Amino acid sequence: MRKLKNQLRKPRRPWDKERIEQEKKILKSYGLRRKKEIWKTESILRAFRRRARNLAAKKNEMEEKKLLDRLQKLGVFEKRATLTDVLGLTAENLLERRLQTIVFRKGFANTLKHSRQLITHGHILINDKKIIYPGFLVSKELESNISTKITIQKGKEALESG
After folding, report:
1. Which domains does the chain have, with CATH numbers?
2. Which of 24, 108, 123, 144 might form a disulfide with 118, Cβ 3.0–4.6 angstroms?
3. Do residues 84 and 125 make contact, with C-beta atoms less than 8 angstroms apart?
């Protein structure tokens, strides 16, 4: 059995008041369940930044183009970006691309917590496939294919037939 690699890095100073307050604001504004989700997002962001720094040092234009195309396809950047734009990314940029946030912004749910519940219960579809992960990063091309599952309640069905 192989050991799975940890997907996140916990904060070095666990009782830093400023960081705790900032994380509370992020938790509330994006409807996240626990701080671990913020730390995962920051780890993903850290990987993008590290890759951008290495590419800037190596001056590899083909790999640079791949990274920028991936971020643009993900929807983090609207227009053509540079490596310095990648270094300026924040966790909020990636949190805006989460399925939970997009479902709420599109109006399928009343609140961010409601959108999370709809997703985990399997009521949200992307390309007619059920996605049950609120942290799923939605690309720009998939954003238009988000829909809700039509469910018929038994009570309504009985009223209409009777």
Report:
1. 13-92 (no CATH), 98-162 (3.10.290.10)
2. 123
3. no
